[in-house]
């Protein structure tokens, strides 16, 4: 099955994510780590890594809702190798990603109130995790609400869990 589907992996996943998928598929990662984790009902049931990632993402929500894009960006890898994919474009680098956020969200009204939901944290070893989820911005008229899905690749670098890749999609404008 793996060989038959490798072409699909090659076309749809960037090299680094393909490597993690291949490694998880062929071994070196426990079956428990390979399974897509469903968000537990109680935070105490989460793994320490999942709890830490949830906490980092909670801090992003708090910073965003306070109008602090710089604070929101603290969870991203501060490197020119950071990748952010959205709207058919790939932005490379922490500074360019920050500049893009500030350009798209120039004021608190445009930023709205952020929330994340349906978070699934899949550990891909001791220093990597894949996070799937949904995002939603609630904004006051005349601004429209918007939301979508995201996938994040977190890595533990220098003892800190940071986002090294973000792929965010906008589903449709919501009411």
Describe the structure.
With 175 residues, this protein is α+β, with helices and mostly antiparallel strands. 37% of the residues lie in helices and 31% in strands. The protein folds into 2 domains: 1-34, no CATH class; 36-174, Nuclear Transport Factor 2, Chain: A, CATH 3.10.450. It has 7 helices and 7 strands, in the order αααααββααβββββ. Strands 1, 2, 3, 4, 5, 6 and 7 form a 7-stranded mixed β-sheet that branches. A hairpin with a 4-residue loop joins strand 3 and strand 4 (128-138). It is globular.
Number of helices: 7
How much of the sequence lies in strands comes to: 25-35%
Instruction: Give me the secondary-structure category.
Output: alpha+beta
Helical percent range? 25-40%
| CATH architecture descriptor text of the largest domain | Roll
| SS elements, strand count | 7
| CATH level 3 topology of the largest domain | Nuclear Transport Factor 2, Chain: A
Q: What form results from the Cα inertia axes?
A: globular
Mean pLDDT: 82
What would you report as the Rg, rounded to the nearest angstrom?
Answer: 17 Å
Q: Could you tell me how far the N terminus lies from the C terminus, measured between alpha carbons in angstroms?
A: 42 Å
The residue ranges in which pLDDT falls below 50 over 5 or more consecutive positions are 1-13, 15-42
CATH class of the largest domain: Alpha Beta
Largest sheet: 7 strands, mixed
SSE string: HHHHHEEHHEEEEE
**Total number of distinct structural domains:** 2
């Amino acid at each position: 099955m793996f060989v038959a589907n490798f072409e699909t992996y090659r076309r749809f996943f960037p090299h680094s994510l393909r490597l993690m998928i291949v490694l998880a598929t062929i071994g070196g990662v426990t079956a428990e780590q390979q399974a897509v984790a469903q968000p537990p009902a109680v935070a105490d049931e989460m793994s320490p890594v999942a709890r830490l990632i949830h906490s980092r993402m909670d801090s992003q929500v708090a910073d965003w809702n306070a109008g602090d894009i710089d604070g929101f960006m603290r969870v991203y890898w501060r490197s020119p190798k950071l990748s952010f994919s959205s709207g058919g474009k790939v932005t490379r680098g922490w500074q360019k990603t920050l500049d893009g956020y500030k350009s798209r969200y120039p004021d608190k009204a445009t930023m709205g109130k952020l929330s994340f939901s349906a978070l699934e944290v899949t550990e891909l070893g001791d220093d990597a995790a894949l996070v799937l989820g949904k995002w939603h911005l609630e904004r006051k008229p005349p601004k429209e609400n918007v939301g979508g899905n995201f996938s994040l690749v977190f890595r533990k670098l220098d003892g800190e869990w940071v986002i090294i890749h973000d792929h965010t999609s906008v589903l449709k404008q919501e009411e």
